Amino acid sequence: MPKMRMNQAIVAALADEMRSDPNVMIMGEDIAVAGGPFKTSDGLLAEFGPLRVRDTPISEMGFTGAAVGAAAMGLRPVVEIMFIEFLGVALDALVTEGAKFRYLSAGQVTCPMVVRATVGSGLGFGSQHSQTLENWLMATPGLKVCVPSDPQSAYGLLRSAIRDQDPVVVLEPRALYAQREEVVTGEAGIIPLGSARIVRTGTAATVVTLGQTKNVVLQAAEQANLDVEVIDLLTLVPWDVETVLASVRRTGRLVVVEEAPESGGWGSEIVATVVRHAFDNLTAAPFRITAPNVPVPYAKDLEARYIPTAQDVARQLDRYLASGQIPAPWWVEEGIVV
Amino acid sequence: MTLDMRSARERRLALQDDAIEQYARMVEIRDFEERVNGLFADGLIHGTTHLCMGQEALAVALATVLRPTDVVTATYRGHGIALALGMNPRSVLAEIMGKAEGCTGGLGGSMHLCDMSVGLLPTFAVIGAGLPVAAGAALAFQNRGEDSVAVAVFGDGATNIGAFHETLNLAAVWKLPVIFLLDNNVYGEYSRINLTTPFEDLHVRADSYGMPGIQVDGMSIATVTPVLQAAIDRARRGEGPTLIEAKTYRFAGHSRADTAPYRPEGELEYWQQRDPLLVTRSEIVASGAASAAALDEAEQQMRVSLGELVDDLAASQPPALQDMFRNVSSREVHA
Lengths: 338, 335
Description:
The complex is a heterodimer. Chain A is α/β, with parallel strands linked by helices. Chain A has helices at about 5-20, 45-50, 60-70, 90-95, 100-105, 150-165, 215-225, 240-250, 265-280, 300-305, 310-325, 330-335, and strands at about 5, 25-30, 55, 75-80, 115-120, 145, 170-175, 180, 195-200, 205-210, 230, 235, 255-260, 285-290. Helices cover about 35% and strands about 20% of the residues of chain A. In chain B, the strands form two sheets. In chain B, strands 1-2-3-7-6 form a five-stranded parallel sheet, sandwiched between helices. A two-stranded antiparallel ribbon of chain B has the order 4-5.
C-alpha cells in the first residue's frame, strides 16, 4: 500500500475516476497549470488535457453554475472551491438550482456534480478563511455532504461522491492535507456515502465526530484513557443513523464534538434524532462540545482554543462519564463568558 | 374535438418552414397567457405567474432555428418559450394549475417548466441563474465534441447581476457554444430600465467580454430569425458565444398582482402598434407564404382548441400526497 498525504490521496481519487469515466472533469481556480493551491490536482492537466482539467477565472458563481449545466448534460464535473467561504457567492447554483433539478424536472434531469471545498481552522487564515460551514448546506434536500478526516477517507469518499447521481459537497479539512498514511486505492478503497466508521470502541459513551474533531477526540480518549466509542461520521447528509443509534444503545450516552459555533450546529441534528429514537436507552442527557459562538480568531493561541482541544474534550468527557452531568464549555468553566 | 394531441417533438418539428404554424404558435402563446390570467382571476390557479405577451416572436423564432437536441435555459417568464419549443399546452397548463399530468407532475408550477425531449431545462426562478447553467451545458457539448449549442434566454434585468458578467467572461474565454439571448422587454420586475441601468441598449455589454453583441428587433420573426441562425451557426462551428439583444416589450405587468401603473403614458400604446402578432401577420401575408384567410382560420382553430383544453383540465386531478416525496434525490426520503 502506498503512503500518501491527504492531498495526494485526493489527486489519486480524481485520477482514478477520470481514467474510468471520460465524463469526469475538474475545474477551479489555479487547479490546472498550478496543480491546485493545495496541490490537490497536481499532474492531472498533463494526463487529461485542458478540456477535462480547466483553470477558471475567479468566478465561483459562474463556474459552479457551469458545473450544474454540465452535469445536467451528463458530465461529472468536480469543482474546487479554494476556501468554503467562496461558496457563498455560488450557493444559488448549488442549492437553489442543481439540488432541485431532479425535483423540478420530475426526474428528467439529474445533477451528478461534486463541489470540493477546503474547510476549517488551524492554519492562521483568519475569520474569512477558516470556517467549516457545513450547516449552510445540510438543510437542502437533494444535496449530499461528506467530510473526510484522513487520507483514506479523502480518497474513498471522493470516489463515491463523483459516482453519485446527485450533487455532493466534499468538505476537506485543509489542516489535514499534509497528514500522511497508507491508503488503499482502487475499488477496495472506496467508502460509500452515508456510512460512518467506528474508529475506537468503548462502552461508557458514544462520541460522534466529523472532520478534524475525529483526531481531537481520539487524542483525548487516548490521553485520558477514556472508555468511549468514537464514531467518525464521514457523511453528514445522509448521515448514518443506524450506526450511531446502535452504538448509543450499547453505551447509553452520547456526546457530539463539533468544530463549528454552538448555535445551529450539525450536532443538534444528531442529538435530536438520537433522543427521538433511543431515549429509553439513554442513561444521561446527551450533549455537544463545540466551538464558541464567535468568528475564528487569528492570534495563534486564540485560534488553538477555537476548535475543541484534546485537553478540554478529555476534561468534559471525564466529568460526564463520572457524573452523568453535562459539563460547562471552557469559556464558562474559565469564567470568560457568564 | 380539436385538442392538440401532438408530442412536444412533433409540435417542435411542425414549426420548420411553416409560416402558418409559426403564426399559430404565437397566437397560442398569446391566448394561453390570457387564459392563464383569467384562470387566476377565477381562483383556479394559485401562487403567482409571469406572462410574456409581447415576447412571442422571439420565442417562436428561437424554436425554429434550434434543434430539439440543443438546450435552452429560460426564466420564470417561460410559458411562451416552453410552448414555442414544442411543449404541449396541456402539459404546461396542467403544471400551472398544479395537476398531476403537468410536465413535472404539478410539483414545479408556473415558474418551473421542463421537457428535455425538446431541450428545455427546468426554467429558472432566480434572475440570471440560467446563464452559467447554459454555459455548462455548452461545456459538456464542447468536451464531447458535439455540435449542439445551448441558449440562455433572459431579460434586461439579468444583465445587472453577477452571473451575467461571470458567465459571459467564462464563455468567451473558453469559446463555448452558447448564445446569450437577451430579451430586452424594458422592465426588470417593477422598474423601468432607465431606473436601474445607465443605458438602454445592452448589446454593448458584449464588448467587455470580447464577443459579438448584436441588437435586433425582437417583434419580428423575419428579422430575428437570421440573426439567431448566424449566432447558432457560429457556435456550432466552435467560434464561440454571441450576445443577442432582442428589443421587445412586456405588455403585462411583472407578475399577477402587478397592473404596471408605473409605465410612462403612451408607452404601452406605442409598443402595441409593434405587437409581434400584428408584425408577423403582415410579414407573412406580404411575403405570400400564407393568405390572411388561412391565418385567420389557424388562429380561430387555436383559440377553440385552448378553450377545450381549459374545460378538459377542470376535471384533471392534483398530484397525490406521496408524489411530493419523489425525485428528491437518488435516495428515498427517510422517516
